[in-house]
Design a protein that fits this description.
The protein has one domain (7-216): TIM Barrel (Alpha-Beta Barrel). Helices cover 45% and strands 15% of the residues. It is built from ten helices and eight strands. The chain has helices at 7-16, 29-41, 56-73, 83-88, 103-110, 123-132, 155-165, 181-186, 196-199, 204-216; strands at residues 20-23, 46-49, 76-80, 93-96, 115-120, 136-139, 170-172, 192-194.
């Protein structure tokens, strides 16, 4: 009888195969869920719940809604910042910023099967995150974006420098949209995060499908 993969192995395999990482924007919960569902139909491999204004009870409720959607789509669910919300909602992982719980602490509390993501804009920061136990990185800003307007843009080549410094998945983040994804692909980048281009799209499903196709088929 063949051995079945463990949940740990399945999560890592899904992460290794991922190309499009959709991240939610601040909006009313029903709108967030609707856009998330459209992105998943469009092929998003990971979905991150990122919401800076919801109260914690409402955030947990939304995380549970998104958990059901990602489970049905076979995608990974990541919660931004809040490890406790991620664990309570049975998410696949958490993404941590500079002011959040450390990667090492999240790794200890989440356990071996729990994915921990971090952000890095330089090779040194990337190597430090990996040493602390990060499973993947978001590298950027790849392009100018009002969400990260205080950070200098590192461009596609900056993302490449981060990716070449580590041996875990690295996703370009910051201002990625259908009009510039070709610049990432030309630099050899096959993984990207999207936020505004999906949240503000008239048809998020079509945008997700278009960008994922570009990442897969240079």
């Amino acid at each position: 009888m063949p051995l079945t993969a463990s949940p740990v192995d399945e999560r890592r395999a899904r992460l290794a195969a991922a190309h499009l990482y959709a991240i939610t924007a601040d909006a009313e919960a029903d709108r967030v869920a609707a856009v998330a569902e459209a992105c998943l139909r469009g092929g998003a491999d990971l979905l991150q719940l990122r919401h800076k204004t919801l109260g914690r009870g409402a955030l947990l409720g939304l995380a549970e809604r998104l958990r059901a959607l990602t489970a049905a789509a076979g995608a990974l669910l990541i919660v931004n910042d809040h490890l406790d919300i991620a664990l309570l909602a049975a998410a696949d992982g958490v993404h941590l910023g500079d002011d959040d719980l450390s990667v090492a602490e999240a790794r200890r509390l989440g356990g071996p099967g729990f994915l921990v993501g971090a952000s890095a804009s330089t090779p040194d920061a990337a190597r430090a995150a990996v040493s602390a136990g990060a499973d993947y990185l978001g590298a950027g800003p790849a392009f100018a974006t009002p969400i990260k307007d205080a950070k200098p843009v590192i461009g596609p080549q900056g993302v490449v420098a981060v990716r070449e410094a580590v041996d875990i998945p690295v996703f370009a983040i910051g201002g990625v949209n259908p009009s510039n994804v070709g610049q990432l692909v030309a630099a050899g980048i096959r993984r990207a995060c999207m936020i505004r281009a999906l949240a503000e799209a008239d048809d998020p499903e079509a945008v997700a499908r278009q960008v994922r196709a570009a990442l897969l088929n240079p």
